[in-house]
Amino acid sequence: MGIRDLLNRPAFRRLLVAQSVASFGDWLGTFALVALVLERTGSATAAGGVLVLRLLPSALAAPLVARVVTRWRHRGVLMTANLVRAGLAAALPFLPSLWWLCGWAVALGVVGLMFLPARDAAVPVLLRHRGEEPGGRTLQLANGVTMALSCAMIPIGAGAFGALVFLSDLLAWTGRDHLVAVSALDAAAYLISLVAVRGLPRLGPRRGARGAGLLAALRFPAVGAVLPAVAAVSLGLGSLFAVGAPFVRDVLRAGFAGFGALVALLGVGAFAGVLGARLCRGAGLIGQIRLGAAAQGLVIIAMGALASTAWWFPGTVLLAAAATATLIGGITYLQETLAGPGRALGLTALHAVLRSGWAVAAAAASAAADALGRTSLVPVDVAPAGLVLIVAGLAVFCGTFLVRRPDGEDRAVTDLG
């Protein structure tokens, strides 16, 4: 099955529209949040801390989210998540203090975690043909298209935010008027996504299914096989985002414009990762996961050791491609191996580890780089941010040895209902 065949499926096409528009809203809201925190505090550290709050609660909220996505119908979860996020987006300009912004970021992170596993669990259901589950290649292509469109929303969201800010300056809007315009567009994006989801057929789990706790997912061999690689990916990406800006500015002397180019290249790399995932089909999904995570670790080590723009910018593309191929392989493996509420449960564990691991890695990498910058005991002639990346890359590479194929390649249906 090719991309054209996928897009000819009306239900899957609706899900793609819903996902893409919601992802646009996510990134537009992220840029608005950063701008608002910077405007009120003038602190880049505060802005980074609020962003971490969007991801870190995933670990704490994951047990509750697991109960929701294994008990509620996926379409209802998607619609509820969009409706709540639309309300949160509309409220952003009117929050009175930094503490309210922190609470807003936490709430948005929790609701976002509900959306992702419900979306991924819906993909195999929407691609069924005459009652038969889709094959691994079809799922991998569908996940690749979904992830590529999500990554495309990063520059589109940034462009929309910049255009609205420019327009507000042109019209001499003052106070929070410019942020109201951004929030209105953000809320509208979530409502459009809600309308698209509403047209989907009814998805599982069946009504009255027994909800399951997150710890149940850890008993699934498939989940245990995938999570080490997902944790490695989150470690690498979190470390890069935490120390990337100071490394590009202070070591590469490329300034914040260079870091902006770095973020844009992450989107390019994500598209390359979709193509790379198709080229790795011969290695099998577990092999693809191992190769992707190992490649990411090696690239991060090289980025930390080589303080050169000639390597950093192509290295960023390679890093994003490797991370994307790993995540596509992990999501596809869980979709193909698990079924029923167990599929949603496993995907919840994957996204919880990815988001919370990203936040923890970003916080730890920032603290480590700051600590190394204040000491003269560093044994090698490498910038503190570079040393942090080298250590993170080694951890990512070593993490690939924890990825093991389940005994007997158990593909049994996991139904918790």
List the topology elements.
Elements: H1 3-7, H2 10-41, H3 44-55, H4 57-71, H5 74-91, H6 98-126, H7 136-170, H8 177-198, H9 221-251, H10 255-279, H11 284-305, H12 309-337, H13 341-373, H14 384-399
Q: What does this protein look like?
A:
With 417 residues, this protein is mainly alpha-helical. It has two domains: 1-210, Growth Hormone, Chain: A, CATH 1.20.1250.20; 212-417, MFS general substrate transporter like domains (Growth Hormone, Chain: A), CATH 1.20.1250. The chain is built from 14 helices and no strands. The longest helix is centred in the middle third of the chain and has 35 residues, at 136-170. It is globular, with a radius of gyration of 21 Å. The model is unreliable at 409-413 (pLDDT under 50). It is found in: Cell inner membrane. InterPro entries: MFS_trans_sf. The chain crosses the membrane at residues 12-38, 44-64, 98-118, 139-167, 179-201, 222-248, 254-277, 289-311, 317-334, 346-365, 385-403.
